[in-house]
């Protein structure tokens, strides 16, 4: 729990250092398809909602719910996230393609050394 709090606090500090209003261009509901290193492929749903200078981010993957907070720097949305029991945390990074699709990479603290990948397509 303490590690999750530290990660989220770090993201909040980064948010304070950048005065960039969250834009609706990232917001919406997406269908996701990804790869989890050593586990396999997955599909699910992603929602991104602007809240002031940050984004609230939620995934529903295989009946599991993950939540996070994100910021945009340049053309990249970076998200600190955790699962339902909040005993672990991870980070995801998305770039927006010209067609609005999000191309993502993610990792979990203490997990595989190869990042997972994710493609998010706006619904």
Radius of gyration: 14 Å
Oligomer: single chain
What is the share of helical residues? 10-25%
Secondary structural class? mainly beta
Q: Tell me the overall shape.
A: globular
* Overall structural domain count: 1
Tally of helical runs: 1
Largest sheet: 8 strands, antiparallel, barrel
Strand content: over 45%
* Count of extended strands: 8
Order of SSEs = HEEEEEEEE
CATH superfamily: Quinohemoprotein amine dehydrogenase alpha subunit, domain 2
Low-confidence stretches: 4-23
Q: Give the strand line-up of the largest sheet.
A: 1-2-3-4-5-6-7-8
Distance between the termini: 34 Å
CATH architecture: Beta Barrel
CATH class: Mainly Beta
Descriptive notes:
- With 123 residues, the chain is mainly β.
- The protein has a single domain (2-122), classed as Lipocalin, CATH 2.40.128.
- It has 1 helix and 8 strands.
- It has one helix spanning 2-17, and strands at 28-36, 40-51, 54-61, 64-73, 76-83, 90-96, 102-108, 116-122.
- The chain has an 8-stranded antiparallel β-barrel.
- A hairpin with a 2-residue loop joins strand 3 (54-61) and strand 4.
- The longest helix is centred in the N-terminal third of the chain and has 16 residues, at 2-17.
- It is globular and about 30 Å long.
Write the SSE topology:
Blueprint: H1 2-17, E1 28-36, E2 40-51, E3 54-61, E4 64-73, E5 76-83, E6 90-96, E7 102-108, E8 116-122
Antiparallel strand pairs: 1-2, 1-8, 2-3, 3-4, 4-5, 5-6, 6-7, 7-8
């Amino acid at each position: 729990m303490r590690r999750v709090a530290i990660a989220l606090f770090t993201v909040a500090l980064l948010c304070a250092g950048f005065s960039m209003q969250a834009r609706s261009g990232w917001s919406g509901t997406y269908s996701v398809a990804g790869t989890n290193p050593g586990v396999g492929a997955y599909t699910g749903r992603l929602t991104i909602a602007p809240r002031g200078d940050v984004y609230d981010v939620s995934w529903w993957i295989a009946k599991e719910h993950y939540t996070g907070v994100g910021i945009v720097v340049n053309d990249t949305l970076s998200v600190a996230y955790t699962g339902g029991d909040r005993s672990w945390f991870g980070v995801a990074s998305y770039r927006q393609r010209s067609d609005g699709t999000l191309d993502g990479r993610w990792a979990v603290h203490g997990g595989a050394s190869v990042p997972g990948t994710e493609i998010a397509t706006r619904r």
